[in-house]
Every structure is written in structure tokens, then in C-alpha cells.
Amino acid sequence: MPGVSALGEVIEEFAPAGRVLELACGPGVWTPLLARHADEVTAVDASPEMLARAAARVGERVRWVRADVFGWRPDRVFDVVFFGFWLSHVPRERFAQFWAV
After folding, report:
1. Where are the domains of the chain?
2. Among residues 15, 28, 94, 95, which is most buried (max CB within 10 A)?
């Protein structure tokens, strides 16, 4: 997939610290990189299959949440919010709702 290695390099350079929220984590492509730097990672996805695949990559260092990101409300404050290539899948009419989160 174009851009994967470039985004990985950006994550490594940025080195997100503190509490990181990963929205729509999917199969966990970025989760290990985030977990390498962060004190805590919360990864959210609506698909139990995707969460299982992601958990197989990282394991216990991540808090996994099965939820639709459009309706989910976090129970804590985060220092960094990350989402990879997922934004291109958001229907235009849902943008306002997404940014409200």
C-alpha cells in the first residue's frame, strides 16, 4: 500500500508519548509502532476480527475497545489521537460527527 513506509517513518520520528488513542486500528499495522513509544495505547475498532488480528501483533500493552468511533466516547483524556488511512473511508456527511469526537 502506498504511503505505509512513509507513515511508519513519521510515527517513529514523532515518537508519540503519553496516552495515545488509535481510532479505527483495523489489523494493527500502526499499533506496534505507537506502543513502542507511548505510555499507554487505546485502540478502537468496530470489528472484532480486526481487533483480534491487531492484538496478535501487540498483545497486552494495548487497551482494546470494540466500538463504532462515531458513537464511542472515551473515558479518559489522550495526549495524541492517531488514525492512519481510515479517514478516506469516512463518508463526507459524517465528517462533522467524526470531528466532534
Report:
1. 20-100
2. 28
